[in-house]
Amino acid sequence: MNRNYLKQPDGYRETIAQGINGVRKFRDGLCEGKYSREESIQRLKKEIETTDTIVIGAGAGLSTAAGFIYTGERFVKWFSDFIREYGIRDMYAGGFYPYPSKEIFWAYWARYIYINRYMDPPKPVYQDLLELVKNKDYFVITTNVDHCFQKAGFDKSRLFYTQGDYGLFQNTDPANRKTYDNEEWVMKAMEAQGFIKGPDGVFDLPETGSIRMEIPAELLPVCEDDGADFTMNLRADEDFTEDEGWKKASAAYSGFLKKHEDQKVLFLEIGVGANTPVIIKYPFWQMTNDNPKAVYACLNYNEAVCPKQIEERSLCIGGDSGDVIRQLRR
């Protein structure tokens, strides 16, 4: 089986290599595009309506626009005890804190996974995006690990989650290249901390507000195959498990790009920051540059830019991506 997967195309590494090579061509600097914000929105709306093929590249900014915010009121509601006890300042940083025991560490992560993977975002941004592209030949590549695309109804066969999934565990033994669904464990760990499941099936704080910051030792997540400890299936180093599903999605992405490489394509980048530009941003720039029929659109709160070399075929739209997507639907 593994030999078969080694023969499959690897869209992840192929496009990263192309993007790194391609970005060297962009020596004239970056710009914010040639059109005003409103004109760019109208032009993007027309592109979506008239283009059959759309490649969506999504980063954390899209989930932020949907309400998955890792600070503020949402953070305080679910982690007030951890904030008081350990002084953590945001949800993301709390995932790396050196907690004094595994029981506390996994109590934190159970909450983290539950609210960012098994709860729906507060705003229907992903559903709005689906309405825009559902009748198109589309494909999605994303660095997000919150599963929002699939929960919103996007076709699973058209999705590539490059960096993992909050809903999966992997074995700490790198020889084990499988992933394991964690939903059942998360629900048990939430109950063990004192969270109450309502009639709608959603957990919430008890009326007393009293919850526990640890789970029982017998609930620590271990692999049923060999008894080894689990860890999150999130790309942090070379030990990240690219399982059979990941490889299949990577091959599908490669195939989709090759199928449409000389055709009219809209590369729609949403909420991609500067942390990992080699995965989505640089390849999108390069593929737009190499295909004269392609158009590049960048929706980004503060960093809506494009290389000057593709300015004529680029649409850069700043501000809240959720608001832009709603305007496009109208």
Please give a structural write-up:
The protein has 330 residues and is α/β, with parallel strands linked by helices. 40% of the residues lie in helices and 17% in strands. Helix 8 crosses helix 13.
Label this structure with key terms.
Rossmann fold, six-stranded parallel β-sheet, 13 helices, alpha/beta, 2 domains, three-stranded antiparallel β-sheet, disordered N terminus
Provide the spatial order of strands within the biggest beta sheet.
4-3-2-10-11-13
Looking at the overall shape, the CATH architecture of the largest domain is 3-Layer(aba) Sandwich
Q: Unreliable runs, pLDDT <50, ≥5 residues?
A: 1-5
Structural domain tally = 2
- Compute the number of strand runs: 13
What kind of sheet is the major sheet?
A: 6 strands, parallel
Structural Rg: 21 Å
CATH fold-level assignment of the largest domain: Rossmann fold
CATH secondary-structure class of the largest domain: Alpha Beta
Q: What is the tally of helical segments?
A: 13
Q: Please, what is the average pLDDT?
A: 95
Strand content: 15-25%
Distance, first to last CA: 48 Å
Considering the protein shown, what is the CATH homologous superfamily of the largest domain?
A: TPP-binding domain
The helix-strand sequence is HHEHEHHHHHEHEEEHEEEHEHEEEH
The percentage helix is: 40-55%
